[in-house]
Amino acid sequence: MSDRNDRWGDLLRRANRGDGAAYAAFLTECAPVIRNIVRARSGGGDEVEDVVQEVLLAIHAKRHTWREADPVTPWLYAIARYKTVDLWRRRKGGTPVPIEDVAEVLPDERSGEVMAARDLAGMLDRIDARSAGIVRAVGIEGESAGEVGARLGMSEGAVRVAYHRAMQRLKEMAADETGRTG
Predict the structure, then answer these.
(1) To pair with 172 at 20 to 30 A between CA atoms, which of 10, 66, 72, 153?
(2) How high is the pLDDT of residue 99?
(3) Which residues form the RNA polymerase sigma-70 region domain (predicted)?
(4) Domain co-membership, 65 together with 134
(5) Segments in the chain forming alpha helices (H)
(6) Do residues 9 and 88 both lie within one domain?
(7) The domain spanning residue 21 has which CATH number?
(8) Sequence-distant (≥ 6) Cβ neighbours of residue 52 within 8 angstroms
(9) CA separation, residue 167 to residues 119, 134, 170, 180, 181 (Å)
């Protein structure tokens, strides 16, 4: 498990036993990571800080539900994901319309997702295996740079740099393909 996960687990264990300083350190350290998760999953916007606060409140209210034998980061990330999904639901708003009334005129959204996934897989196959693995782990599976670095024997900073460079290569490939077809 990552150093971050071990440290946060230790801080939350101590916090659950009444150590206020450990709880303050836990929240201070995890808040920027939660903010990054929410920003990435929500597409940014004015509501990011509101969602971060909702996540921190949920952590406070539900911290007793974390099983101390389990890693803490997946528990935290799940709360952040759920609160971000709530944001998407609030954004959608509107009046519900029965799908049967419009099913014939709606495009098949799955075909676009399948095409995008196929295109991404094809582009990932055209870059080096390590970079493709980093993009899959960080960008698709949501692992932290620290977790990926620990697994690959790289520093967290080196993973971030490799991820950024790989994303730049993918962006350039996509631009080249769009320029050729458009």
Answers:
(1) 153
(2) 52
(3) 29-92, 124-172
(4) no
(5) 3-16, 20-42, 48-62, 72-92, 99-102, 109-125, 129-134, 145-152, 156-181
(6) yes
(7) 1.10.1740.10
(8) 31, 34, 35, 38
(9) 14, 10, 5, 20, 21
> N- to C-terminal Cα distance for the chain?
46
On whether residue 99 sits in a domain, the answer given is no
Domain membership flag for residue 104? no
CA–CA gap between residue 37 and residue 106 (Å, rounded)? 31
Sequence length of the chain is 182
Position 21 pLDDT exceeds 90:
yes
The CA-based diameter of the chain, rounded to the nearest angstrom, is: 62
pLDDT reading at 40 higher than 50: yes
For residue 32, is it within any domain? yes
d(CA 21, CA 30): 14
Bigger pLDDT: 117 vs 38: 38
Q: At residue 9, what is the residue type?
A: G
Q: Which two three-digit tokens encode residue 58?
A: 């949920």
